[in-house]
Design brief:
Layout lengths: L1 E4 L2 E4 L3 H9 L21 H26 L4 E3 L4 E3 L7 H12 L3 H14 L7 E3 H18 L16 H13 L13 E3 L11 E3 H5 L2 H11 L3 H14 L11 E3 L5 E3 L1 E2 L6 H14 L2 H17 L1 E2 L2 E2 L1 E3 L5 E3 L1 E3 L5 H7 L3 H18 L5 E3 L4 E2 L11 H13 L2 H17 L8 E4 L4 E3 L5 H14 L13 E4 L8 E4 L4 E3 L5 E3 L24 H17 L49 H14 L18 E2 L2 H8 L9 H14 E3 L1 H6 L5 H7 L1 H8 L3 E2 H20 L10 H11 L9 H17 L3 H15 L13 H6 L7 H6 L2 H38 L7 H12 L18 H10 L15 H9 L12 H12 L18 H7 L6
Parallel strand pairs: 2-21, 24-25
Antiparallel strand pairs: 1-2, 3-4, 5-6, 7-8, 8-9, 10-13, 11-12, 13-14, 15-16, 16-17, 18-19, 20-21, 22-23, 25-26
Helix pairs in contact: 2-15, 2-16, 3-4, 3-5, 3-16, 5-6, 5-8, 6-8, 8-9, 8-10, 9-34, 10-11, 12-13, 12-14, 13-14, 14-15, 14-16, 19-27, 20-24, 22-23, 24-26, 24-30, 25-30
Length: 977
């Protein structure tokens, strides 16, 4: 609620605003005491500041590493100290880190980066990006940085916060995401091209979170710019998803945004669904929309009924409620924080204790943890430095001041510092049991993990504003003039931890359209406000909100006093610590902590050999995930350990066939030669790194690709610039197995030579050692300079090569064959087009000679040409005879539809001619827009869809009192009564 007086807009700390502070856990005194978990040690103010500065050092080390080695890329690769593009090639980590700089008070660097982005960033790119990731990271990051600009000392534009360069950049990106919402259901596609809209052939299946995680950013953008389309499409998408929940009130994991059909029926609060529930709560607070909070409470009732088991949350079938996956996912760790935001701290701290026990067991949270066995799930043991656990710790600590949460935060800080730190950053933990590293540092480590850790220990940070103070700013004439209050809190964090100043959103209602039309100012008179406050206080005494509190059977607590060590005074009773009681034990009742220590000692001291894998029925070894220890064992082998060269080869090949790499790890190692994609096509990249493969598979593929590339390069068939149709036909004949033409012997000889070279590489143990050394160097911090070859070159040459018949020989060149066949199709098409255009050109020159001059194109002739295109047999009303063409039907249709003029010398430099466009398209040198998109049509369709939701039965008491009318007017401007 706001007081509108003399054009000064300030928040009243009554009614809904007080409730917002309650919901966002800033007014901690309103919560009851927790009896569940207590810390083992006390944290002084000085100790908390020490930990805060350790977090600052952690952020600074990672941030400086990114700037030094990867500032032109999306992310830093911390093991190899270089960069990689992951989400869109727009310096993602730099944008994602911007508000963290402000949070930690580094305003000088904030200003430098903000200026750099303003001068150099351009989102007009022909790249496909994730709608979800681009929204939360880029749009959210730019909006947050825009709203923090004044705090950081940036020179502001006149009219800020309703305009500014970072705000314009955020809207530019959001506009490019809008085509994704142009669907039959209003739910967005998962991918969009920043320049051309939804890519042709894009799948209509996307995850539930991708549909429901837009309202915080898009709502903020609408409130700041006055353009309602962003909030309305996000709200419509959420409502559309909501009405498709199952009969028992659960959401599936993936949905078809065109048909509304669920394609993945597992329901949970983790991956693929998580932030849907987060944005129901945060959207309700930020945008003052109680219907969203009503949705959350309704959804939560079913979550507690079907998914909650002993304060763990499992996965179940969305239609039947039967448990399908009894696992805890690290992404679910946000849930206790959300419960604390709505004031339900008791179940939040219980669940938090469960999650903390997993952290203590491993030192990290695995992506999947099997609740029934108490172990990290196979192939899901990684920890990519996720923030969700410390996020909940920060929220719960703000609510309860329970130092157990500080203790957990300190443990997270120290473990990450100890096991994830590298020379230039912090690495993903590939396996939480062995603490092996993976060569990736996601941008959310700087955006979220370090920020939440910092805020956990920095209790006086400006982002913890409890609305006790604010700042008055002057509004420009374009925004209605007058003054506005900002920085009054609370700050709402989007799911990427980008803080949004809620108070600033109410400064821009007059920007582009008057949001106060129809507002009854008498409702804000002093007498009315005083009476409303009085009625509210009376109501609070006689009833409580059923959503926010439950009857609790309180057991009498025996009061116990103990002497104060310093003052000698009795203190209030202290609940017994339960930190030890939630220790995890295995099936033999042995503490899991001891098991973890033993595991590390085993990895450290034992030499794990190939025999550790139990034999299968046929006597072969089971395939294992490759570890650094395995590679160290391999390089510890010497020639004297083997009887003969064949035994060395057998051991080497067996080693490669025994160990596997998962797809993400294959990709991170950068073993794939980029020129392969250029020569053999993108399908080879997918084949190389899309599935789990043995080391042998990867090694063989690598050399097979090289063999095919060399063949194409030898005969200059790897580029499409210059066509040699005869060579294309000859190579294609050989690749098809035709040996009748002796003139093709040179091609056969080259293929044989390349195949022999390929076969030798499969027996070259030294080359295999080089291959494994690259994996060791790129996949860990190990930097061995060299190795001793197991075999000499002479010994390798004596190893026998397997004989392969001609059909097998040709099969290995399937990649080159595919490329040559494609070139054959292009050359054939090109020759036909050249001939066709030459015929048209000859015909047109003949017509010009007959007429003596070019025929002037009048409006009437244009109309006739259009009629011919639509109906070639149409009748001319003037001569009552069918309109026929003097040229052949084929030439006529092509001449009319493909080109305005033939490719003669007069127009051969015309880059916009249809001929040039056609040639460029065939050569793959240009791309055309996939779909036409009209934002106006989308807005009208969205508003029409929103009509069906205006009659929802909304419990406005969720926010204590009825919200102002202008909130309804914003998104239901034309339809809401």
């Amino acid at each position: 609620m706001w007081l509108i007086s003399n054009r000064i807009r300030i928040p009243l700390l009554t009614c809904a605003w007080r409730t917002f502070i309650l919901i966002t856990i800033l007014n901690v005194s309103s919560f009851s005491k927790s009896n569940y978990v207590r810390a083992l040690k006390h944290y002084t103010k000085e100790r908390k500041l020490e930990l805060r500065e350790q977090v600052r050092g952690m952020f600074q080390h990672a941030y400086e590493g990114y700037l030094k080695y990867a500032s032109d890329y999306d992310e830093l690769r911390p093991l190899t100290c270089d960069g990689v593009d992951t989400w869109g090639s727009y310096s993602l980590t730099m944008i994602d880190s911007l508000d963290t700089l402000a949070t930690m008070g580094n305003f000088t660097e904030f200003r430098r980066v903000a200026k750099l982005l303003e001068e150099k960033m351009d989102f007009d790119r022909d790249i496909n990006v994730s709608v979800f990731e681009t929204n939360i990271r880029i749009v959210g990051g730019l909006l947050s940085a825009h709203l923090l600009s004044k705090k950081a000392g940036v020179e502001l534009e006149k009219g800020w916060p309703c305009q500014g360069p970072l705000l314009r950049m955020a809207e530019d990106v959001a506009k490019r995401l809008l085509p994704a919402f142009d669907t039959a259901t209003g739910m967005p596609y998962g991918t969009v091209n920043l320049r051309y809209g939804v890519p042709k052939g894009e799948t209509s299946i996307t995850c539930t979170a991708g549909v429901g995680t837009l309202l915080v950013e898009f709502g903020t953008l609408s409130r700041l710019t006055g353009n309602t389309i962003y909030e309305e499409v996000a709200l419509n998408a959420l409502h559309s998803l909501w009405k498709r929940r199952s009969n028992i009130g659960l959401f599936g994991n993936h949905i078809d945004v065109q048909s509304g059909r669920w394609t993945a029926l597992d329901s949970g609060i983790g991956a693929g669904v998580d932030s849907l529930f987060e944005y129901m709560v945060k959207g309700a607070i930020l945008l003052q929309r109680p219907e969203l909070l009503d949705m959350f409470h309704t959804a939560r009732q079913q979550i507690d009924k079907y998914l909650r088991h002993e304060d763990w949350y499992v996965w179940a079938n969305m239609n039947k409620g039967q448990v399908t996956l009894p696992v805890f996912q690290s992404l679910e760790s946000f849930w206790p924080g959300i419960l604390s935001m709505i004031g339900d701290r008791s179940p939040a701290i219980k669940t938090m204790a469960n999650y903390a026990s997993v952290w203590r067991k491993y030192g990290f949270l695995p992506e999947f943890y099997t609740i029934t066995t108490g172990e990290a799930a196979a192939n899901r043991e990684s920890y990519p430095l996720r923030p969700e656990l410390v996020e909940s710790a920060m929220y719960l600590y703000r609510a309860s001041k329970n130092e157990f949460l500080l203790e957990l935060g300190e443990s997270m800080l120290q473990t990450i510092e100890h096991s994830a730190k590298t020379r230039c950053g912090y690495a993903t933990i590939r396996n939480v049991v062995t603490h092996e590293k993976e060569n990736r540092m996601e941008s959310f480590f700087l955006s979220e993990t370090t920020k939440y850790l910092y805020l956990l220990f920095d209790e006086d940070n400006f982002l913890h504003n409890d609305a006790a103070k604010g700042e008055i700013i002057e509004l420009g004439a374009s925004n209605g003039g007058g003054q506005c209050v900002i920085n009054t809190g609370p700050y709402i964090f989007n799911t990427e931890a980008h803080p949004i100043d809620m108070s600033a959103l109410y400064c821009c209602y007059d920007h582009k359209q008057d949001m106060f039309d129809g507002l009854d100012l008498q409702n804000f008179s002093d007498s009315t406000l005083a009476k409303s406050d009085y009625d509210l206080n009376i109501k609070d005494k006689v009833e409580s909100d059923s959503h926010c509190s439950r009857p609790v059977n309180r057991q009498p607590v025996k009061r116990v006093t103990r002497p104060n060590a310093k003052a000698g005074k009795p203190q209030p009773p202290q609940e017994p610590s339960m930190a030890v009681d939630i220790e995890v034990f295995d099936e033999n009742n042995k503490p899991a902590g001891d098991i973890l220590v033993e595991s590390f000692e085993r990895v450290k001291n034992e030499q794990i050999t190939m025999t550790r894998a139990p034999p299968t029925i046929d006597g072969s070894q089971l395939r294992n995930q490759l570890t650094v220890s395995d590679l160290q064992d391999f390089f510890a082998k010497r020639r004297e350990h083997f009887k003969n060269p064949q035994e060395v080869l057998d051991y080497t090949v067996k080693f490669l066939k025994n160990f596997t790499l998962d797809p993400s790890y294959i990709l991170s190692l950068k073993l794939f030669d980029k020129t392969v994609t250029e020569y053999l096509g993108s399908a080879t990249q997918k084949e190389y790194s899309s599935t789990t493969k043995t080391l042998w598979d990867i090694y063989v593929l690598k050399h097979k690709y090289q063999m095919n590339m060399k063949l194409l390069m030898t005969f200059n068939l790897h580029v499409l610039d210059d066509f040699d149709s005869k060579m294309v036909e000859k190579v294609l004949m050989v690749l098809a197995g035709d040996q009748t033409d002796v003139t093709n012997n040179i091609i056969w000889n080259k293929m044989t030579e390349l195949y022999v070279e390929y076969s030798k590489s499969l027996t070259n143990t030294t080359e295999i050692q080089n291959f494994l050394l690259k994996i060791l160097i790129n996949g860990s911090e190990e930097k061995p300079g060299n190795f001793k070859a197991l075999l000499t070159d002479q010994e390798i040459q004596k190893l026998s090569n397997e004989h392969v018949d001609v059909s097998q020989h040709l099969k290995e060149f399937s990649y080159a064959k595919r490329i040559v066949e494609a070139e054959k199709r292009v050359t054939d098409t090109f020759e036909q087009l050249q001939k066709l255009m030459a015929d048209i050109n000859t015909k047109q020159k003949g017509d010009n000679k007959k007429g003596g001059q070019a025929i002037a194109q009048t409006t009437e002739s244009k109309t006739k040409a259009d009629t011919i295109k639509k109906n070639p047999t149409a009748t001319d009303k003037n001569n009552n005879s069918p309109m026929t063409n003097t040229t052949s039907p084929t030439a006529s249709s092509v001449g009319t539809n493909l080109m305005h003029s033939p490719p003669t010398k007069d127009n051969e430099n015309n880059s916009v001619s249809v001929w040039t466009h056609l040639v460029d398209t065939f050569l793959g040198k240009s791309s055309s827009q996939k779909f036409k998109f009209d934002a106006g049509e989308l807005l009208q369709k969205t508003r029409k869809s929103l009509e069906q939701y205006q009659s929802l039965d909304i419990n406005y008491n969720l926010l204590t009192c009825a919200r102002p009318r202008f909130i309804e007017q914003f998104a239901y401007r034309y339809y809401h009564p």
